TrEMBL record:
It comes from the Eukaryota. Residues 245-290 have a biased composition (Basic and acidic residues). Residues 112-128 have a biased composition (Polar residues). It comes from Agrocybe chaxingu. This is Uncharacterized protein. Residues 91-147, 242-306 are annotated as: Disordered.
Amino acid sequence: MPSSLTALQRIEEVLSLQYRLGEVSDEDNGDTVAVDGSGETSFRKKVEETLREWIKVKTCRRDVVDLYFANPPNRQEPTGICCDNCHQSSLGSSAAGSPRPSTPVHMRDSASVHSTPMTPSKTLNTNGKRPMSVSKPPPPRKSDHLQDARQALQSFRVRLKKAHFTPSSLTALAILPDSIIKTLAPAAHIQTIDDLEAATNWIYAQRYGIELLDTLRRVDQHEAERRQAVKDAKAAARHQVTAARQEERKRQQAEERATRKAERLLEQQRQREEKVRKNAEEKARKDYEKTVQQAQRNAKAPAKTPRVKKAPIVGCATLQYGLATPTLSLTPHYPTRALTPSTHGVVDFNHATIAFSKFNHSSATRIP
């Protein structure tokens, strides 16, 4: 602002000098003659009426300029000193102790305040606290993201021209030049008005900077949503692949369990058959050993003499144990064998032979 004020002061000095020089110029050069009340003649330079009003005005000089160039009436008040008259007015009001007149400007929200993003660090300090650390700035916009940001800025300057500079001789390119768009499009770290002014020196940063930053913020939000959608799609694809792998693993595990069960049943069957075979072999071995032992015992035992059978007794029945009982023969007149004397007796009764015998139970037999 000081440089602008100095230029305005120089212009005013030049115009004042021209005005004073015009007072002593002659009439042949286009001067006008004026006679004041004292009867003295004075000369004045011929100057356009609008330029003369701009020189003589005591208020803001921009009002005369807007009237001359037919600027739209919805011009907003400047946020700073715009001419020497406004500067003198501000100095006078400040010297008198009265507050400076305020002009309606855009309210600066939290996004317009220059502040370095801070987040708690992961490491603890000596007091057991997590100190604040500077957040990592976002990476620059690239590829499609950069193209979207550039197109959004171009559309923004067209909307800005239609909304605030119509009708006007200013073009959209003059309001927001391509050089500023080229600087802002990749710079994702510009988040505040102060960052915007420091990076571009845009003359409308204070007035329309918030709208511009909101435009870029919407582009970044759209890009973040797109990246999140891509990430979610990849996560869903990985989940499907993982689910398919898990199903395949479960199927393989089920087949392995079935195979192990079948092998276990076959092994059990083989063990049972092996056990039966071993039992049969063990039994055959034991039987063979018994046979061998019996043969050896028989070979070592002495030979037995055969028993002599005694002659059977006719008409006599014997018991296996005890004495013999009398037996009645119903066939009379049959010849009988002679009995051993002193131990047997024969009695003839009713043409029947009754024999009484006392034999050894191991040698008597019955003859029919």
